[in-house]
Amino acid sequence: MKRGLFLKYVTLFVGLVTGVLLINAALDLYFVYQDNRRASIEVQREKAQLAAHQLESFVREIENQIGWVAHPQWASLPVDQRRFDYVRLERQVPAIVELIQLDRHGREQLLVSQVDMDAVGSGADHSSDPAFVEAMKNKVYFGPVYFLRESEPHMTIAVAHGGKSGVTVAKVNLKLILDPISQIKVGREGNAYIVDRLGRLVAHPDISLVLRGTDMSKLAQVAAALAAKPGEEERPVDATNRAGLPVLSAHATIPALNWLVFVELPLSEARAPVIATGLRALGLLILGLLIAALAAALLARRMVVPIRALQAGAQRIGGGELGHRLDIKTGDELEALANQFNNSAEALQESYATLEQRVEDRTRELSESLDQQTATAEILRVISESPTDVQPVLDAVVGAALRFSGAEDAVIVLREGDETLVAAHDGTLSTPLGLRRKVGGDSITGRVISTGETLHIPDINSVDRNEFAGSIALSHEHGWNAAFAVPMLREGTAVGAIMLRKTALGPFSPRHIEMAETFAAQAVIALQNVRLFTELRESLEQQTATAEILRVISQSPTDVRPVLDVVVRAARRFCGADDAMIVLREGTEQLLATHQGSLPSLVGNSFPLDRSSTTGRATLDGRTIHVPDVADLDPVEDALSIELTRRTNVRALLAAPMLREGVAVGCVLLRRPTPGAFTPRQIELLETFAAQAVIAIENVRLFTELRESLDQQTATSEVLGVINSSPGNVEPIFDAILEKAMLLCDAAFGLFNTFDGTRFHVLATRGVPAAFAEYRRTHPTEFGPGTSPARLVDGAPYIHTIDAAESEAYKAGDPNRRALVDIGGARSLLVMSLRKDDKLLGMFGLYRQEVRPFTDKQIALLQGFAAQAVIAMENARLLTEQREALEQQTATADVLRVISQSPTDVQPVLMAVVRAAVRFCGAKDALIALRDGDHWLGAAHEGPMDSPLGEQHPLTRETAPGRAMIDATTIHFPDIAELDPVEFATARQMGARWDFRAAVAAPMLREGGAIGAISLRKPDAGPFTTRQIELLEAFASQAVIAIENVRLFTELRESLDQQTATAEILRVISQSPTDVNPVLKAVARAALRFCGAEDVLIALRDNDDMLIEDVAPDGSEPMRRPLTGKLTIGKAIVEGATIHYPDLMALDRTEFAEAQASAEKFGYRSAVAAPMLREGTAIGSILLSKPEAGPFTPRQIELLEAFAAQAVIAIENVRLFTEIQEKSRQLEVASQHKSQFLANMSHELRTPLNAIIGYTEMMADGLYGNVPEKAQGVLERVQSNGRHLLGLINDVLDLSKIEAGQLVLALEPYSVVDMVATVIAATESLARTKGLALTSTVAPALPRGHGDARRLSQVLLNLVGNAIKFTDRGGIEIRALQAGDRFELSVIDSGLGIAPADQARIFDEFQQVDNTSTRKKGGTGLGLSISRRIVELHGGTITVESEVGTGSTFKVTIPITAVPIKEAAQ
Amino acid sequence: MSKKILVVEDTEDNRQILRDLLGMAGYDMVEANDGAEGVAKATEHRPDLILMDIQMPVMDGYEATRRIKADPALASIPVIAVTSYALSGDEQKARDAGCDGYIAKPYSPRQMLAKVREILG
Predict the structure, then answer these.
(1) Chain segment A1184-1228, per-residue pLDDT in tens
(2) How far is B121 from chain A (nearest CA, A)?
(3) How far apart are the first and last CA of chain B?
């Protein structure tokens, strides 16, 4: 390099100096020559002109002289005078040798000559002489030169006389004038000559030439001069002399004669000084060369150094050392060039450093954002598609969390009670899915769930060993080192956590954590949704189950079994147990009656009913027993339970008693094979099912009893039929007995009385005196001590009184006895008791009106009659009882029928009950009173007594119904008149008012308290029978069942309505993801409908203000009001609690002035406001109001709170959706910014690149002079780096266009064969350079495809280019074939191959396999990514199969007819 | 007489390249720093060809081309857009503005010269 450049510079410098000197010398010579020549010619011309001037002066002088004689008068002068004048003229002008005067006719008048004889008047005719003709015409004539005496040049000059009086012709000798001219000398060899107008030589140094009349017009200069017009510039011609030698020639014209004077100098003579100058210049040149060589050597030495530096630096930069800078301080172009390299290197470096990074960052950011958005959308889609199943959502959430959190593994742990459950998992680490642990334990998720705060552990080995023992153990087991967990918060409480784990140590980025929190929020929404839907569904299912049970009850009035089956089915289904059974009480035993489920059962077996078993205890204690884990049972106390659960593998138990009138008839038992608590809801539900089972059992019992009674009746009737043919009518029998007994015992009259336990009633009489009969009718019950009835009651079998008048009673003044004796006239009497089983049924008396004792025989006879009467009475009683029972059962059945027919309306049932009560309980009038707080009011009434329904009565213990309700016990007033006037003032008052004497009231009991009472009334005093009272109580319980049923049905219906409303609100929520207003309207509608309000307002908090939304259908703008606790609606927000004012006007006037003013303005008096709570903070509230005072029920308030919660969900949803939308918008803006950024960046990068590529190419092309060979290499590297950079920019632009959805396919028909051919043509030189075979196999007769041929070629070109790039041996094959409606294009190489781990990645941006080796191969790493996108846009796929070391096969599958696919981003 | 080419370009380096390239190829070159100056120089010099950068201060190449093409006296002068915008649609934008040709930056001086020769003959 040094020597080459050195020599080149020296040569260049010497050459330059030589050139300069040469040019200088040449120019010098040229100008010297030109100057010489010009000077010579000038001199010559001057000489010529001088000669010409002399000659002209000469002839003009002659002309003038002649003119002196040539005037008109002269011709007429005497001849001598004329001759004298001529002679004088000849003397004056010696050149004139002869003068001739011609007259006007050309006749010679006078001749004066020096060479001839003078002649006067010869008259010789000269009229045709040119001299005469021309002179006459032109006044003057110059004739041609002619020679006399072979050497004397002469010429004729003729001058006309004035007035056409003739001509004087002079013959002039020119020798004197021509000789000097021809003797003119120029230089050594130069001469002068004259030619006439014809070019004939007139004068010349060589006179012989003149004499020969040599024609000079052949010479160029002469010809040119002759041809020239007068006044025209002399034109240079290649003048030569007659000998043909070049001459310098100049001439002058003699205008008078039209002659030319030429002065010529041989060129050789003119050049002599120039040659001398040339020789001088040569000397200078040689000297200059010597100096130049010296200077060049010096300069070259100085220049080579910086160029070497330049070369070395450029080589380093070119070699990829972009940080290197050239340091050349020459202050000239070299420095500029170095700086240019530096700038290029800097630009390249910056480009590499920032461009790739920024593009990568932006691409990744965008891609992440898009993916996130897609993931969020995906999760929301899954949420909406899985309203009932949380698992798909959790799976989607863990999947998304995994993708975006930079972790290897994601887990969702849910809280279930005080346990955590691993619910979903995605990732490479192992995870105990389904594992349960205690909340708040030594694990990360447990901690997060208990604290509700995100926990981030960059290094599990650095945490407290005790605190996180569980997590540390798990990290070893599952092989992770760093993790974080975010809580899934609902209303401030964690319902679960998402945990992300990775094997690498180190923290997660805040962005990842934030993202996971977003996903957690979504998971919570999903859980919430699922919970709501599940609750709704469960609720509906339960209601359905209840309805089903009621249906089965009504269909199985006689068989308890189906009902029990349905109950256990329902219990099993809805109470969270696999297994349910019903245990029935049977005396001192308990019977396992029915069972459903997976656990072993001992159905049909009986066990002792004691407190050693759960079921026994539930049955005996009448309360629900809950055993979450049988291991906790007491081994002694619960021996039986332990034994039974051990035998059946049961671990948890729940037993609910089936209570009838406070006593359990059995219990429903739930069993689980795993320990764990039942939820309060499950317990509650089981109790409901147990109650229903009781109803069923009760019903069946009633029906069974009815049937049994009927059976019994039938049997008794048969017996009675044997005894008596008319068993239904006992009076004739007693009549007959009386008649026979009186006859046999000779009695005056007889009486049959029945006894009801307190009183005797007349059953039959015979012969009784009318007055006494009348007395007995009006005094039925009175008998005093010592009287027969009294003594019979005391246990006497019969009383034989000899003389009643003498009896103690009579003497004591017993009114009955007195009446008997005094009015009835009875004296001797025999009274027989009618007993059955020691029970006094009545008495049978015979009376004589004289004192005559009854004989023993008569007494025995009467005893026989009494026994007969007892049988008859018993029969009659039984019969009556059966009939009554039948009627009662019928009545009960009627009531039950009405109950089943009126599930929604209690009134028909109550009416049926009062009707039945009147009919079967021996009353005239029945009233059902319902309790309403401190009052009761009439709800149903049957009978003549005035009893307006709906009238309120204070609830006091002064009336039968009041006392029955308050004491929850049956109250019986046989005679109201006998009641204490103070204690029972109201009862007496009412009795008087409605005209009744006796009353009985049975409480309608529910859960130990009375909800009302049925009271019976009759106008006559007298007790209701035990049976009647029992019946009344049965009716009361039926009324309760009815009311309960209606309540259940109403609740069910309300519940359904509410669920429908909830569902409706949820539907509106799901349909209005962006607008909260429709949801608020739906909430308002539902609140109005279900919460018993007249008006509703919704306020949303907006910092220190609240926006009161107009939820009316016309929907005007919301009102803005400062948020204040002084208004009810604001107070709910401020306090975050429900505010309930049953009567606003009753509140303190000062404290609630504003609220009251508002209430007055809007016309309401009672209001309730529920806050809309999000994470414990109120974001708004719902206010319900009514124009009248009065509380909202707890249920309504609860419902309002539920609606408020739903409104929060909606608002939250809208917020999330808005956030997502906002995020989308930001992404769109970011995308636009990115496009703009790329456009700008493209411009900013291309501008310097243009300079780099342009300069280097022009330098390489030698535009700036020859570039040293090595520098040429550097330039090529700069160029190739520049092109690589350009390729990178183009690829990035392509990619971003694809990403921005700006890449639109130009679909057109194309040929695969052509495409393959094009690609091979473009790449074969590359393959050849590497010595690789490039072949193609295209299946014959492929159809024409439809797609973007240019883009598809780009893909194929990229694949083939890659294949060539990464293949060093072997070859590349392109295969194209058709597979169904798709083309399969494969590029198969025998190159490096791609490791399986990399195969998936290479289609991603900026991914290349094994960066160290591929760096050498170049490429931007974007080609495959772009190819993939292009193929996907065509609806195709691109795949790779490869084995390291063997080669790779890239396969592109595209539809033959491509339909453009819109990018997801659009 | 040699042909005259107006180069409208705001980057000195790129002007330098064209100056060297076109000068050595025997073309006269007139230079303008921005679109406005380009229009003025076009009016003044009536070049045979205009190489028009697009992204320039004061007035961009599109606008300058539009103005040149709107002037009947200049409309026939071929204008080649020389732009570093390579996004799709930029060429169409240049053509819409009235450009007769389009060369993307970075260009190869050889190709640039070929293009110029093709137009100027």
Answers:
(1) 899 988 888 887 888 888 888 878 877 777 777 677 777 777 777
(2) 21
(3) 14
